[in-house]
Fold these 3 entries.
Entry 1:
Amino acid sequence: MAWGKHMEQRSISVLLIEDNPDFARLVQHWLAAGAGDVAFSMSWADSLSGGLGQISRGAVEVVVLDLGLPDSDGLGTFTAVHKQAKARGIPVIILSGADTESLALQTIQEGAENYLVKSACNAAVLSQALRFAVAKHTAEVASRTRVIGVIGAKGGVGATTIACNLATELRTQTGKRVLLADLDLHAGLVAFMMGVDPQYSFQYAIANFQRLDESCWNAIISRNRDDLHIVSSPALLGREEVPVETIRQVLALVQPFYDWMVLDLGRLNALSAALVNRTNEIFVVTSTGLGALYEAKRAVEALAKAGLGKEQIRLIVNEADRAPALSQRDMRSIFGTEVYASVPHEAAQMQQAMLARRPPPETCGLRKQMALVARKLAGLPEKNSRGSLSQLFSLPHRWRKSPGPDPAATSG
């Protein structure tokens, strides 16, 4: 059984596991008014088995648990619920009639977010406990999520290709939960390149922000054969801009669902610049043409002025153009940072992949480079095999350190 949500407010889905229907109605009354900008959507289970079943079905953000149930009692009740809730990242608050300090301490030590006694509880106490538990849990989970932004120095340098293949390799190499989000809102190509035909786009998530829980989000995203989660661009094509703050709020809400998020931000503009502080690192993708290198330098400088540290800005060189004779020292002098990875030019394989609407084969140089980058980001050791990734990661001859004086040292 479920009671309704206040759709105009941010809603927190609460599961109450309590065998007394009168007390369940009292808790619903306490939560009905919400708390400022937060509303509560409450579901009720009157047994341990019923509660575990609701947790397994998802769409629960926090559990309020009575320890005395028809099919379980005491610490064992908490242990059973906490085990399943922890696996799904759900905090558990005890709301019990047992005013026993030793039991309260034991459940807190075992992982309960809070221990409330029924006789001392009221609407304000419970509402605050719920909000604090969800906020704390969200912050803890979000801090474990790595967010990688990908920005193209200019159009046509392959930033979306890098984003798609990096997300693919993060999923393949780590086995973790990965989201690939197309935030090039006007002309994104992620869905096309990944071979998915989404029913919904990021715009739908924005429009349904007030009820955006994990169940709703799972209906919005697409999945490929590797279970990589993909949310597509709305392809606005010059229509009204989406408020940046709403985009930031959606990203904050879904971040706890993932271990990794790869954001295809398109080019550096007002929107992408406002989102860079949602990332742990930014990959600036450039080709080897002089125009692209010039734009990449401007992008790196703009990101640094926006507050990103040098260690957060990664330069990816896509050798799609005929490269000028620039050494690694030259590149370091231009950008003030090392080239993080260099992607070989493989026009035929990339064209075949685009026509097939799927990532290129794992044997191609791009996938191998992205596999190395993914493993490096995840802190995994390099694979030692014939044609090892470490060899592929080494810069091609023209990028290696050249003899002679450092141009930076001889310039005025």
Entry 2:
Amino acid sequence: MRLFPAFFLPLLFSLAGQALSEANSSDSTGSEAAPQDTAGIRADTNYLPPLRSLPNEAFGPGEYLEYEVGYGFIKAGTATLEVRRVVNYKGYQSFELVSTARSYPALAKLYYVEDYNYSLMDCDGLFPWRYQKNVHEGRYQAFKWADFDQKNKKIYTSKDTLAASEYVQDALTALYYTRTIPLQVGETVEMEAYSDGKKYLLEVKVLKKERVTVPAGSFRTIVVEPLLKTPGIFQQTGKVKVWLTDDRLRLPVLMKSRVLIGSISAQLKVFKLGERR
């Protein structure tokens, strides 16, 4: 069983959790990151009418966030979240979203990690059209993809076709979509999300406001807790919490989770803001 499902914070926690919970592994092989997926991307600017239009003051093309991932006081590796550009995907204006995670060389000798997530998110509707991931964590390697037919509420994978609710999110777009929603302490946001061949109800509880300091600076934040409403999920991990800046950007500056032994954190150390659309 994977230590963390690929929801809300793809790969940021699994990097430290897998690397240090299996530190006795002798596997030290490497792999190349998956190439970015360009299938369905057009060169022209002839766009179809959007399926829906939602406000987005939080992020835009060019945004780049880099994190240091640690297990307690041990620095395990780095992770990134990036909005690379806007493309024409099958006639719809879409963000290219990329998440990566990689173990530091010292730990890679014990447990190699090199993960790559890629998603195409509709700029107007803030839902996914395409998702893929290439994962290499220790002995585990996998390449998976999903196409989202948002018009007909279907999800297509290499193995199956699933019915989905309207505007279902994927493991990467769920975070970006949450950043665009007005968050009030005490409230809960719900959405259907898809990962690894399954659909889940994802709840995001808004807990409190708090000022935190990370390598990138000191920020006023709003703390949220993502929960998967599925029996058995998270039963071995404890709670995951995310600190989003308490402003229109909702930058994820800090992420923490307790695991069987100790805790995992991802702290923002470098960031570049994206363009406003």
Entry 3:
Amino acid sequence: MDVTKFVNEKMEEIKFTVGSEKAISALSGGVDSSACTILAHRAIGDNLKVIFIDDGLMRENEPQEVAQIFADLGIKVDIVDTKDEFFSALKGLTDPEDVRKAFRNTFYSVFGREVRNSGARYLIQGTIAADIIETKGGVKTQHNILEQIGIDPDEGYGFKVVEPVKELFKPGVREVAKELGLPEKIHQRMPFPGPGLATRIVGEVTPERVAKVRKATTIVEEEIVPLKPFQTFAVLLSDKGTGVVEGERRFGDIIIVRSVESQDAMTAEPTEVPWDVLKRLAKRITTEVPGVSRVAYELTTKPPATIEYV
């Protein structure tokens, strides 16, 4: 791929599509949405409003850190607190597809409101090829896919969707992000699912359960990220296991640690994490995350498993 040519063509496409109208960029801080935000900002300038939806499902301090990165690039990011809306939508749901669809509906409902309030007509989002393939193939519902499954966002939510990198896989998006001058912490950032930590909780998604998997994720990333895996994270199961804390029995939570190697996220192999690293992070999780009794390491490839749990 001629990256410079791709960037120039996409900027022209965005200019032509949006014209003199206003657009909103759905920024999450991942490489996909970040590349699209920069492309759109260069294409339409002040006619772009950049929004980070704080759904309560992000990693530790993520909204503030992402906003600062883009402020350093001269782009203002508005953080919109929608935690209550998302947790309300997810309340009582345990089926993975129900969780993903509830997240998708809330995501577009929130952006529909923001688009209407701003007077914009377009939503810029970081859909990539793997999202479309997995959704159309029935592997799992990706939150950022509408038209591909027969939903018209203009009729349902009041805006048109612009997807500048939808024909690229992750490596291609990384090339584009680097060409656009995004810092390495963005263009080499590990993939993080749109529904956030909701895809890393088996069972009901509640603020309390999210807090546990968020803390466990921080520990996993601190211990395994230096190995430079494609993706690594923690999962909170609905099952429980018996443990012993200060000589007393505790029937506590189980955390699964997953780390994989992949090129395009369509297939994946488990990371060979050194034994001392696994033992250290297991001790940290059971010590630092309240209520966790057990930690296990995941060894399943994709396929048959998916990378994410939910």
